[in-house]
Amino acid sequence: MKTWLYLTADGLDAPCANWPCCVWSPTGERRYLPLHEAARELHGRVVDVLLPMEMCSWLRSDPWPSRRQPRPQALAFAIEERLSENLEALHISAGARDRQQRYPLMVTGRSRFQALLALLAAQGIDVRAMHVDADLLPEDKIFAVRWFGRWLLGGALSARLSLSAQVLATLKLDLPEDIHWLDEGRDREGIDAWLLNAGGHPIDLLQGEFRRRRRQPLPWRGAAASALGVLLLIWASSEVRVRFLESETRRLYAQGEQRFRSLYPEQNRIVDLAAQFQALQSRRGQSQDTQVARLVHLTERVIGASNVEVQRIDFREDEGWKIQLTANSFVELEQLRERGQQNGLPLTLGSASKQNNRVQATLTLENR
């Protein structure tokens, strides 16, 4: 059994080191204690963190037409109209595709999620995975489980909810007749073991930029310490030479930068001098006929094979071709981008927005 740390719903209003928690040991024992005490007890152990459903929202995408795994950005655009906030303010985690070819998605506030991870890191808690309590219910039946004073709804139900007893009493007549009712008041230990070891495919919130970076243990620590001592001696003997080389490098770079600015005064910002110089030289030798041929290839092989409408086409030497177009859906835009990759064209989609029943976006054919 895994070691679970459950951040209860009682601490959501004021997240801090005193957040009321529950810890399950590998033997299944339940212990209640604040977060800072749980951190001391869990020190040195990798834990699975469990969040209350009150912190997240659960949605499902429409049936996905492509067999390929969609990018998170495409899934986010597909449910954008059902969200009350901008995509930039949200952290969206995707689960496994279900039998109806839909993708379940768990949505939470990005800044709130970042603050939670910072709080756990400050307490020294090593998190392996992060799930939501209502998402742990098995998917073969519809369940309503009374757990920690609230009712969790999920499983085969097309929703993941946490309800108070009063709200549940109001909605009870609208719930399916084949729902299975469980109450921790009657069998708390059994429900704990059943929930925390249940099968299914719960969504791990540690995705994308929040994906866990695995720590690599250092083998042969004794030999590494000896090697470190030798390296320190080598470093001390070569310090003078390194400083001289650094001084010469800075001087030569300053000369090169001055020469570069004299040749290309329009380049106000220098990030990578060598890369910028090579890029400018390659662009200077690139003919306009090649750019037009690439645009013709794009319109014939990619845009011409779809139902999108082209509104405007622009060309910029440093960016490539920019085509403003209108499509019927975000899925159609994703298919357009995939078709471009199949034809060897480096396409990117940006500035996508939905107006009425149409989707407007900018398609960029980048310079190679």
From TrEMBL:
Domain (GspL cytoplasmic actin-ATPase-like): residue spans on this chain: 34-177
Pfam families: GspL_C, T2SSL
InterPro entries membership: ATPase_NBD (IPR043129), GspL_cyto_dom (IPR024230), GspL_pp_dom (IPR025691), T2SS_protein-GspL (IPR007812)
Protein location: Cell inner membrane
NCBIfam families: typeII_sec_gspL
Stated role: Inner membrane component of the type II secretion system required for the energy-dependent secretion of extracellular factors such as proteases and toxins from the periplasm.
Descriptive protein name: Type II secretion system protein L
Species of the source: Pseudomonas viciae
Lineage, top ranks: Bacteria, Pseudomonadati, Pseudomonadota, Gammaproteobacteria, Pseudomonadales
UniProt gene name: gspL
